[in-house]
């Protein structure tokens, strides 16, 4: 076992500590079960010795022994049931806690981590890897304790019967460990690779299912299947290697154990012939030798399963150990922001190799409406991400009401900013649940009033159950425009002191958009607002238009002034009306 594997195993054991009562009961039951199992060969040997020949059987004593054997067997069954129950509770409680910690940690991860790791891979770590880990852990708890107690007990009893033959057994048995250890070292690498490839497979499946309409629209099915097949073949290959390597353990150790059994049978038979042994004692000794070697098989199987479990555990712990967002516990809380935003010499890029925003300077007074325009990839959405503190600047500052945003708690900052994106987010549940995300505890009247302002009330009432209509993941069968209207309703209900509208009406028909723009106009009264728009006709009334290109603000001013300037904005605006 490698140093990292040992650390992972110790960490897993720490997770089991809250449930140590179940662990203790499991160990006690394992001891009782093993002791009862050790009694059976003794009783069997005594029963054999009572069979003295035809007509010479001591039936009365035999009946007593048979009754004792039945009682021992029932005792074993009870101990086994209690041990397995405790092990199941211990294992799945531990797994539940690990999943809970992983899920809690995902909420604390920076967006940069989530951007680098496909959602399907994270799902694979949370579900498939943890399930594999649970199977290995359960097998370990179930078989390891019983195996250790059985080995110790049988060894003691064999010594009392024949120290010489016991020495033969003990000398040959370590071969099992040598073989199992040799194989286990090689299986770990295969199981780790199997987990990684399985994660990629889940990511591909998740990607294809979530983007099914796009896949069909561009006839991408064949290429998607080719990607799947390529990764599936790799998964099949590495799984075959892992299973083949691990499957060598059991037959190899069984071969060693059969050699031990043959040696015991040979030595024991010689002792019976010489009169040093009874046939009953030889029968008991053979049973003990089997019981002694069998746990080595089980332990070798446990070791193999643990290699798989540890490989999976390492992947889930990698997720749990991923660096969190920088702590803002010492940052200040703000109740209601006035809305003054100052950006000073700010620079930011997602990767060091590629520059994006450089030396950006903006001054926004409370209540001003700022439009952000520019070609695709110029940094508009990145600027919004920085305002929301999804990312922090590499250089410079963003100040809100004179305080750097890095000194304001993220939760406090985001409560003061309402956001509607081009990409909608709706959770599975009712439409009511999705709207009330904007303001928990809002009344029915407030919700309906917000829906009317967002012009979503009419289509919601036409649905089968109105506001209680259940929608699936990402809005189910709702159109993109309807989804966007629900997101706008959510914002209308929340009414925070600052607004960010990133192509908020891109999927809505022109007539409804004109109505919503009027609603936005009244909602933005007195609120600092940032509007990202491609349709420049919708931002004519903005107090200031920021024109971005290649990560820089190349022009800024009001609509009419920018047109007179006849620069990049003017050309961009006129191009939308050219035939």
Topology of helices and strands:
Elements: H1 3-16, H2 20-49, H3 59-106, H4 111-116, H5 119-161, H6 163-172, H7 174-210, H8 212-217, H9 221-247, H10 249-273, H11 279-321, E1 341-348, E2 357-364, E3 369-373, H12 380-387, E4 395-400, E5 403-404, H13 410-415, E6 417-420, E7 429-430, H14 431-436, H15 444-453, H16 457-462, E8 470-471, H17 480-494, E9 498-502, H18 510-523, E10 528-532, E11 544-549, E12 552-557, H19 559-565, H20 568-575
Parallel strand pairs: 3-10, 3-11, 6-9, 9-10
Antiparallel strand pairs: 1-2, 1-4, 4-5, 7-8, 11-12
Helix pairs in contact: 1-11, 2-3, 2-5, 2-11, 3-5, 3-11, 5-6, 5-7, 5-11, 6-10, 7-9, 7-10, 7-11, 10-11, 15-17, 19-20
The shape, in one word, is elongated
Number of strands: 12
Number of helices: 20
Largest sheet: 6 strands, mixed
As for the CATH topology of the largest domain, it is: ABC transporter transmembrane region fold
- Strand-residue proportion: 5-15%
Output the strand order for the largest sheet.
6-9-10-3-11-12
Named at the architecture level, the CATH assignment of the largest domain is Up-down Bundle
**Overall domain count:** 2
Q: What would CATH call the homologous superfamily of the largest domain?
A: ABC transporter type 1, transmembrane domain
Average pLDDT level: 80
**Helical residues, percent:** 55-70%
Low-pLDDT runs of 5+ residues are: none
The level 1 CATH classification of the largest domain is: Mainly Alpha
